[in-house]
Amino acid sequence: MSGVLSVRRDWKKMFKIGKIPPEILEGIVMNPIRKNSVKREDVVLRPKTGEDCSVIDLQGELCVLSTDPITGAAKDIGYLAVQINCNDIFSAGAEPMGILLTVLLPEGSNEADLEEIMEGALRGAKELGIEILGGHTEVTDAVCKPIVSAAVIGKSRNRNIIQTGGAQVGQDVIMTKWAGLEGTAIIAKEHEEALAQRLPFHVIEAAQGMKEFLSVGKESLIAAKHGATAMHDATEGGILGAVWEVAECSQTGVELWQDKIPVTEETKLICKEAQIDPLRLISSGTMIITTKNGNELVDKLTKNGISAAVIGRITEKERILVSGNDKKLLEEPRSDALYEVKLR
C-alpha cells in the first residue's frame, strides 16, 4: 500500500496546469471506468481519451452529452462556456439543445460579477438557439476566480454520430479557421493593457473580435453532409494536440504539414509578444476534420464563408510534424500555451 501511495504522490508532483497527461488519465480515470461492471445497453458511445462526447440511445433518437469547465479565462466565461461546450456536440455531428451551468464564485464576488457571467451565457445560448436548462450557483473559498462548468445535451441528426476516433488511413486532415483562435481572443482580453504598450490597438481589437468565430456549428453540418469520418474541436493543446488526439483515438498515424496550418497575423503578433507557440494554443472554433477528397470539402466550406485548409494526411502508424524538409515526432498534448503567457 505504501508503494502505491508513493507512486500517487509522485504523480501529483508531475501535474501541470491544464489537461492531465494522457498516460495518467488512462491509468487513473479511463481504465477504471472501462472496468466498471455496470454496462448499460442504452449507452452506445463511452468515454475514451480524445473523445469529447458520450451517446445514449433513447429508443428513437440518440442523446449526445458533453461537459467542460472554463478555467483559462476570467472574462467572458459565461459566453465561452456555452460556445465551447456546444462545439463538442457539433463535433459529433449532432445538434445541441440545452445546457446546465455550474457557477462557482470566489469570496468577495458581487451581483455585477454574476450578472456579467449570465449575460454572456444568455447571449451565447441565443446565438446557438439552445435553452439554459438550469444548474447551480454558489460562492466558495475553494476557488480564487470565477469558474463556470457546463454540461450540454444534444440530439443526433438521423441517428448519425461522427466520432473523434473515426479517421481512416489515406484520408485528408482539414482544419477550419485559424490556429490559436480562442486563445488569441482570451489573451487580447485578459492582457489588453500589457499588449497596448507593445501592439497597435487595431491588432488587439481584431484579436478580441475573434471570439465571434468560436462556434463550429456551421462547418460541422457541411462536413457531415460531405462524408466526414472524424471531427474534433481543437481545444486545450491547440492544433497539434487536437490532431494528435484524432490519431490516438483512431489508432492511426498522421503526417501534419506545419507550413499549411493557417495562423492570422494578429495571432502571430500576440503569440510573439507572449512568447508562446500558436500551434499549442487553445483553438476552440477551429475544427479538425478527416475525410476523403479534402480539397472538395475545403471548397464547400469556403463557398459558405468558412476559411479552411488541408493540413495533413492520416497514415498507418507514425505521427509526424513536417516543417519544410524537417520531420519530427508529433508529441502528445501537454499543458496549453495559454498557461505559459509571459506578459507583464
Write the layout of secondary structure elements.
Blueprint: H1 2-14, H2 22-35, E1 43-45, E2 54-57, E3 62-70, H3 77-91, E4 95-105, H4 111-128, E5 131-139, E6 147-155, E7 172-176, H5 181-190, H6 192-196, H7 201-208, H8 217-226, E8 230-233, H9 238-250, E9 253-257, H10 265-274, E10 287-291, H11 294-303, E11 308-315, E12 319-323, E13 326-329
Parallel strand pairs: 4-5, 9-12
Antiparallel strand pairs: 1-2, 2-3, 3-6, 4-6, 7-10, 7-11, 8-10, 9-11, 12-13
Task: Give a nutshell description of this structure.
The protein has 344 residues and is an alpha+beta fold.
Structure write-up:
- By secondary structure, the protein is α+β, with helices and mostly antiparallel strands.
- The protein has 2 domains: 18-34 and 42-155, PurM-like, N-terminal domain (60s Ribosomal Protein L30, Chain: A, 2-Layer Sandwich), CATH 3.30.1330.10; 164-340, Alpha-Beta Complex (Phosphoribosyl-aminoimidazole Synthetase, Chain A, domain 2), CATH 3.90.650.10.
- The chain has 11 helices and 13 strands.
- The protein has helices spanning 2-14, 22-35, 77-91, 111-128, 181-190, 192-196, 201-208, 217-226, 238-250, 265-274, 294-303; strands at 43-45, 54-57, 62-70, 95-105, 131-139, 147-155, 172-176, 230-233, 253-257, 287-291, 308-315, 319-323, 326-329.
- The strands form 2 sheets. It has a 7-stranded mixed sheet with strand order 8-10-7-11-9-12-13, with helices on both faces. It has a 6-stranded mixed sheet with strand order 1-2-3-6-4-5, with helices on one face.
- A hairpin with a 2-residue loop joins strand 12 and strand 13 (326-329).
- Helix 3 (77-91) runs parallel beside helix 4 (111-128), helix 5 (181-190) packs across helix 7 and helix 7 crosses helix 10.
- The protein is globular and about 50 Å long.
- The model is unreliable at 1-7 (pLDDT under 50).
